[in-house]
Amino acid sequence: MKLPGQNKQKKGLNQKDGIHLRRKYVDPSLQFLNWVNSLGFGKSRFGRWLVFAEERFHLQRVTLVSAFCLILAPLLYYEFDFAERVDVGEVAIVDIKSPIALQIVDEDATAQKQQEEADAIPAVLDFDYEVYEGVYARISRAFQEMRHLVRQQRWLENEYEREEQIKEFVQHRAKFEQLLGVEVSGRTFEWLVEEGFSARIENILIRAIGLWGGEKTIDSLDSLSLVSATAESASIVPVGGAGNEFMLPISSIVDLKKRQDLTLKDVRGAGALRPVPRERLTRLARKLMVPNLTFNRKETVARKAAARESVLPVQISLRRNQTIVAAGAVVMPIHVKILNEIHSKQSKERTYLMSVMTAALLVLMAMVFFSYLRRFSLKRVRVSDKDLLVMGTVTIIVGIITKLFLFTTHAAFLDRFGSMIPPSVFMFAAPVAAGPMLVGLLITSGEVVWVFTVFMAAALGFMVDMDYGFLMVSVVGGIAAARGVYGCTRRNDIYWAGLRTGLVNMAAIVFLAFLTSSGLDELLRQLLWTAPAGFVGGVLSSMVAMMLVPLLESGFNYTTDIKLMELANLNHPLMQEMMMKSPGTYHHSISVGNMVEAAAKEIGANALLAKVMALYHDIGKMEHAQYFIENQSGYNPHDHISPFMSKTILVAHVKDGAELGLKHKLGTPIIDGILQHHGTTLISYFYNRAVEEMDENIDHVDENEFRYPGPKPQFKEAALVMLADSIEATARTLDEPTPSRLQNIVKNIIQSKFIDGQLDECNLTLRDLSTIETAFRKILLGIYHQRMDYPHMRDGKVVSVPQPGSRPKGSSKKGSHVG
After folding, report:
1. What pTM value is reported for the model?
2. Angstrom distance (rounded) from CA 165 to CA 59
3. How many C-beta atoms lie closer than 10 Å to residue 65's C-beta?
4. What are the residues whose beta carbons fall under 8 Å from the beta carbon of 460, sequence distance 6 or more?
5. CA distance 457 to 468
6. Potential cystine with 593: which of 149, 388, 558, 611 (Cβ 3.0-4.6 Å)?
7. Average pLDDT over residues 651-679
8. What pLDDT, on a 0 to 100 scale, did the predictor assign at position 1?
């Protein structure tokens, strides 16, 4: 809305007051976003799916984590390769030593011994004593049923007719075969019909089966020869616990595959039969024969496998730095095999598949951890992309440092002290705890630091073949390191955190030594070497953290407590500039800083962050210092401009402050405090003045135009600055700052901010507000002094039209904006 005379006022303001007018500015990122939107990609099917996937699965974040894991995984498996490449028959120029301790299995010799042991295992045969009882029962049932049918048949005396009846009776052969369990030829069945299925023939069959079944019989001996060609006996296992296992020569086992060797020669009653019937009955008896031995392939294979497994591998043991081929010696095939095995062992873990699988596992771990944080953490922690970036960078840096540390210490000490120093010494002495220290210094969320420590310990565990002791010490020591640097305000505090971490590492290593040592000698050796190594690891971690934290602070624009201490120095260029350009604002900020520091200590907030945030919250006023009451000396420029222009200038100090904060790299928390310290508070005086001056028939004044853009305070420290800023500015205006009036100001302003909803988005409780009120009152009673009171304000309550930047026309006192 354009007010009458507004152009003239702007022109006069620019020339007379020297206000810098901003040029038209469009954020390049917004231009790029508008260009992308103009392409219509987001409206396409794939674009909508991509937007949905990003909102649901956070594809950008997953991609970022995956990229770091793909970089980290090959690093974890990388090994320095010093294995010499030689061929059989060459002469070694120098001593070729093993770079690692290694035990090589002679696979050929081991396989030969395993085969010998397996061949010595006999075949296992299950012996069923009662298998023929079923055969006897089937024969009896079949003959009895047929005899019953034969008796029911009225047989004719005429031989021709009788033969016809026999042919018709053949229809019962299927039933006979079913009862008997074997096929019976037509001629044999007709002969049995002619004989009336006599009990004599039945008994001959049963006696033949009994005679032949008295031997140990099997379907075929070929299966035994395939399993054990050289075995001369078999292991007989009675079925159903009918006896003990015993050995039986294979030559005594009857092979039913050769049934033609079975005859009725010694069967009682068979001699009375004519040759043709005897042959028919012999064939039937052979068909009825079943084996009482069954080859147990599963048990045989299991026993042979157990025999193979019982064979100890034929091994060639090598110690680290042991000479494989001496200088001047001829390289033999076994030497080449050993060198190839060393090369294979060092390069096998570096394959692409292992790296990709490890990266996938690390991505899965990270996603599960962060999902848990979002879902179940008390404060619903949200990890920013910058936090992910710095955690990934720290993990890679610590991985590289650990890898180089292990390589250097092995190369420097093991050649000379390899027999004395356990290899785990260097593993525990590595500065692994530097990672949690760095992240604990840069990221204030304890849940995020805890999850990072577990993730980094698991990732570095791949570097040492998932050593359980290393994993446990890394987790426990890492948490102790992160706890040690929490709230540190001096560089030396990091060293003390390293000492505490070293002591925690020592304790964890001692406990693990007692749990894992196999003897007293090994226990003493572990206590002598690895426990001090854990202490050294904690100290080295603090040194590494001390070296890297300034680089990470600058590179990722983080604000640590150490940096806050530097910003709290009043000699900072911004503070010096503010003291020169806007001295009233400078003193106001110092007073607000004292107030919020005291209150923050009482409610458990970060007192240092709150104080520094208060010192810089009004740096944006330097651009137009004369428009704020604390910097005025009688002349109020708001009397000569429209309320819309006054509102614009007042609101601008928030944006100006954020821009200065970015320029001087104050850090995200300080800039957030600058943006949030007014929330969405209504600039009520200029709003009411605009309402009074508007033409009711033409104009309309929107209340939202006279509110600060926000956001409202998102955390305790920003809310403290908001409250202290308003309270201190109001207290300055009192003619008689008595304790009761100061108390009323504190109470009323806190209540008004609460009722206005300015504290809705921070985590201050009602108990916190009561504590803050007490702390503010104590500080104000100590720093107050005589101030000019606002004519429209009394005890923090609006009694007339508020005027946070100007005074009503005709007033004898000049007021201005308090914030």
Report:
1. 0.56
2. 89
3. 22
4. 76, 398, 399, 402, 432, 470, 474
5. 10
6. 611
7. 89
8. 36
| 123-127 vs 233-238, strand pairing mode | parallel
Q: Which two tokens stand for residue 319?
A: 């110690």
Kindly report the length of the chain: 819
pLDDT in tens, 392-406: 899 999 989 988 888
d(CA 650, CA 682): 11
DSSP state of 172: G
Cβ–Cβ contacts within 10 Å for residue 62, how many? 16
Rg over alpha carbons for the chain, rounded to the nearest Å, is 48
Binned at pLDDT 50, 70 and 90, residue 606 comes out as: confident
Q: Residue 86 contacts by C-beta under 8 Å, 6 or more apart in sequence?
A: 92, 96, 325, 331, 335, 336, 339
Read off the tokens for 189.
């069945």
Which residues have CB under 8 Å from 158's CB, separation 6+?
none
The candidate with the shortest Cα–Cα distance to 343, out of 71, 723, 590, 79, is: 79
To 10 degrees, the CA torsion angle through 64, 761, 718, 709? 90
What residues have CB less than 8 Å from 720, skipping those under 6 apart? 595, 596, 599, 600, 605, 610, 614, 772
Which structure tokens are listed for 271?
Answer: 């001699």
Q: Which residues contact 468 (CB under 8 A, 6 or more apart)?
A: none
The partner residues of 96 in beta bridges, in order of sequence, read: 325
Q: Could you tell me which residues come within 8 angstroms of residue 128 by beta carbon, excluding any fewer than 6 positions away?
A: 239, 240, 292, 293, 294
Res 415: pLDDT: 54
Q: What proportion of the chain, given as a percentage, has pLDDT over 90?
A: 11
At 134-193, the pLDDT tens digits run 888 888 888 888 888 888 877 777 777 777 777 878 888 888 888 888 888 888 887 888
| CA-closest candidate to residue 617, choices 572, 678, 536, 565 | 678
Helical spans, DSSP H, in 444-490: 446-461, 468-484
720 touches 758 (CB < 8 A): no
Q: How is residue 281 written in tokens?
A: 């009955």
What are the C-alpha distances in Å from 140 to residues 173, 340, 811? Answer: 16, 72, 133
pLDDT 10s digits, 209-237:
888 777 888 877 777 766 665 667 788 78
At position 614, the amino acid (one-letter code) is A
Query: What amino acid occupies position 676?
Result: Q
Closest CA to 578 of 616, 627, 630: 616
Nearest to 533 by CA among 713, 633, 671, 406: 406
Strand, coil or helix: 425:
helix
CB-based contacts of 594, cutoff 8 Å, min separation 6: 611, 779, 783
Phi, psi (deg, nearest 5) at residue 494? -65, -40
Q: Do residues 607 and 600 make contact, with C-beta atoms less than 8 angstroms apart?
A: yes
DSSP 410: I
22 CB-near residues (< 8 Å, 6+ apart): none
Lowest mean pLDDT among 19-23, 181-185, 238-242, 544-548: 19-23
Of residues 502 and 383, which shows the higher confidence score?
502
- Split at pLDDT 50, 70, 90, the class of 597 is very high
Residue with tokens 């070296």: 547
- In the block, tokens 């106001």 appear at 588
Nearest to 436 by CA among 369, 377, 390: 390
Q: What is the pLDDT of residues 712-767, one digit of tens each?
A: 999 899 999 999 999 988 888 877 888 888 888 999 999 999 998 999 888 889 99
